[in-house]
Amino acid sequence: MPGLRRRAAADPWAPLRGRHLLLVPTVAGPDQVDALVRCWYPQADLVGTGTADLDGVAALHGPHDISTEAAVAAEVPTPWSVAYDLEVERSPRQPGEPPRRPDGLHRAFPDGLPTGAELAGLELLLALARRLGGAVRPVGSRDALTPDHTTAVETRVVSPTWIRPADVAAVCAQEGEGVQVAVGGDTSPEALEAPDGTPFVVHLPMGPAGAVVVEGQVAEHPEPAVAGEPFGAGPMAVYDVRWVAPDEEWHLLEHLEGLALACRERARRPMAAITRTLAELGGGAIVDADGFLVDRYQV
Q1: Strands 135-137 and 20-23
Q2: From start to end residue, where is composition biased (Basic and acidic residues) (predicted)?
């Protein structure tokens, strides 16, 4: 009819353009994503509802199957065809140039990093991308951040059992010489008799490759990743197995190469062996550097 305006069709891809996206390979099914999200947010139910509630301040929706034509409209970079979108309120930006980060987030926000729930949501997406071999496309960017999965060498053993410092030192001594122990900051032999629960550090020198350290303490808060374990609601101890690089700047690099890469790989095998043995001794679970459960035989 003359004078009657046709209502513009809704743009189905507008929500994806306006939200941060997790991009995953087609082989990474929703059940895998759901299991990982539950390591951070145990009450989430992505598979059952299509939406994972992130503590009431954000939500992860998906998966979205995206055709080649739709990818252009949704601003999804090639070759990705499966996406999850993060629904979260835009946060104030941190003032000043952002510090360098190994996940590359500083490159996506050169004028200041997000804060609060938005930053937490982006860090979840980056962790998921690293574990699944995926990427993150921040709002307004046609480039995707692709975290290097090989950088996640640190592990945490979560256990219902307190493993004494001397026993942890014996485990580390199987991987090298020169093990040193500090219990409550005390390096004397008498410190090994400190009461159970006293925080301790075991230091294993790795020569030019730096060192491997194990930090043991009673957990201050429940570990979300082990909420489904029999001991998940009770007291627990945590043992963090870390690589101390010869140059601390290496921990800020997105990708290591040359000598830095060789040193990290030199530390990887003893770290894995120590992690597996501690998990067996304490009857615990292993969590990777991003807070996701790992099978002890796949460390």
Answers
A1: antiparallel
A2: 89-109
